């Protein structure tokens, strides 16, 4: 069965996916391979809208892959993506954390340049978060609170 991990930036989707399966897929990595440049450069050159179109294509291709997939935090922005995730037989696991914890983690992560983080103030990001949380909760088949838990504990909780 395909398993999608969803959640805001910094919720640990890629880390947890890699622990759940050696054969996991990171959607952002697939997209970067497809577009041939870092996501931040693509946003700057072609805009978020075009990025979302490619993200939808990739999501569609992966739905029946049978693999564990770490999505990008904005995958729920497009109604079409929410429909795909909601109607698929895949397990959709929402890694839930509060905004201040996520903001702290994203700010500390200097390896990943995230345009949505770079281009928005903390207050704007909080609004984006609030809007997305409703979507994550709507389409999740399982919700795991990750705050204060080690990756190992989170994996165990997913597997029980
Ligand atoms: C985005 C999150 C990123 C990446 C892109 C857009 C978003 O993925 O897909 O920068 O809109 O929240 P992560 O959630 O893995 O950081």
UniProtKB/TrEMBL annotation:
Substrate binds at residues 28, 52, 73, 132. It comes from the Bacteria. One of its GO terms (cellular component) is cytosol. ATP binds at residues 10-15, 114. Keywords: Amino-acid biosynthesis, Aromatic amino acid biosynthesis, ATP-binding, Cytoplasm, Kinase, Magnesium, Metal-binding, Nucleotide-binding, Transferase. InterPro entries: P-loop_NTPase, Shikimate/glucono_kinase, Shikimate_kinase/TSH1, Shikimate_kinase_CS. Pathway: Metabolic intermediate biosynthesis; chorismate biosynthesis; chorismate from D-erythrose 4-phosphate and phosphoenolpyruvate: step 5/7. GO terms for molecular function: ATP binding; magnesium ion binding; shikimate kinase activity. Mg(2+) binds at residue 14. Its EC number is 2.7.1.71. GO terms for biological process: amino acid biosynthetic process; aromatic amino acid family biosynthetic process; chorismate biosynthetic process. Pfam families: SKI. Catalyzes the specific phosphorylation of the 3-hydroxyl group of shikimic acid using ATP as a cosubstrate. PANTHER family: SHIKIMATE KINASE (PTHR21087), SHIKIMATE KINASE 1, CHLOROPLASTIC (PTHR21087:SF16). Belongs to the shikimate kinase family. This is Shikimate kinase. It comes from Pseudolactococcus hodotermopsidis. The lineage of its organism: Bacteria, Bacillati, Bacillota, Bacilli, Lactobacillales. The gene is aroK.
